[in-house]
Amino acid sequence: MDQTAAPARPRKQRPPPKAAYVDVIEQVTPGLIRISCSGPELAAFTPPKPGAHIKLLFPPPGVVWPPADSSVETPRPPSRTYTPRRFDAARNRLEIEFVRHGAGLASSWAETARVGDRVLIGGPGGGYAVPEDLRHIVIIADESAMPAAGMVLEALPAGSEVQAICEIADAAEERPLSPNVACSPLWLHRGPSVAAPGALIEAAVRAMPTPPADAYWWVACEAASMRRVRDILTTHHGIERTRLHTRGYWKFGDSNYPDHDYGAE
Ligand SMILES: Cc1cc2nc3c(=O)[nH]c(=O)nc-3n(C[C@H](O)[C@H](O)[C@H](O)COP(=O)(O)OP(=O)(O)OC[C@H]3O[C@@H](n4cnc5c(N)ncnc54)[C@H](O)[C@@H]3O)c2cc1C
User: Which amino acid residue places its CA nearest to atom 41 of ligand 1?
Assistant: First the structure.
């Protein structure tokens, strides 16, 4: 036997997704749709950590998922990663906020969703562990990460000093990160094109005169931009890596970007 070979890892067994049904659809801003769904299977949904993610599964038309006969190998339907923005355990109700970014399985589904539609939800998983000594945080997000940024904001210790920077298309996309916690982000208006996503965030971070040395940083946006922001923070501003939580939420030109890009390899 090859003693150097890594032992085979057991295949990850995912719990089956929970089915829920759309009950409210809100056009929050021109570019954002909030969809609430509920159903008894959400009783098994664990309250999510701030910035956690879920998987929304999209079985092709005519495909029943999970399959009735589990002994038959059936490919898992395509899925996309979203934020469980608000979970009401008393009502088994989950809110999800969708950026209308154009053609995309999930974005297009949200644009055409109707009350009563079935939603298949995996997770939640992951999330941000708020450091115990956090007194000051800089939150940086584009539209796709604003739902998670709102969750992080709501999980901070009382009295935390918060700076938020949000890159959005235009003033019509400005909205509170949280209905409960006051926060006045620096809004960066990108304009209608997303050809250079995150460019305004990068410029704003580079231009910070003296970034607070005691701050933690929570950064989530387009993947390539997230890497550049990370680089500006560590090399230009000399911020310790241990103070950074950075995450790519989507990648320009890529479909179904993975849910675990921390940009830190
Ligand atoms: C942990 C985590 C949490 C997330 N939470 C949310 C959330 O709460 N709300 C949310 O809207 N998104 C969220 N996202 C981002 C979301 O997973 C991606 O935007 C995903 O690509 C959307 O799937 P889709 O089927 O609509 O598009 P895809 O089929 O994946 O992509 C189609 C095309 O659209 C482009 N694209 C994808 N997203 C965007 C965007 N935001 N802006 C411009 N172009 C885009 C892609 O580059 C690709 O060219 C999250 C991602 C992660 C990793």
Answer: 144
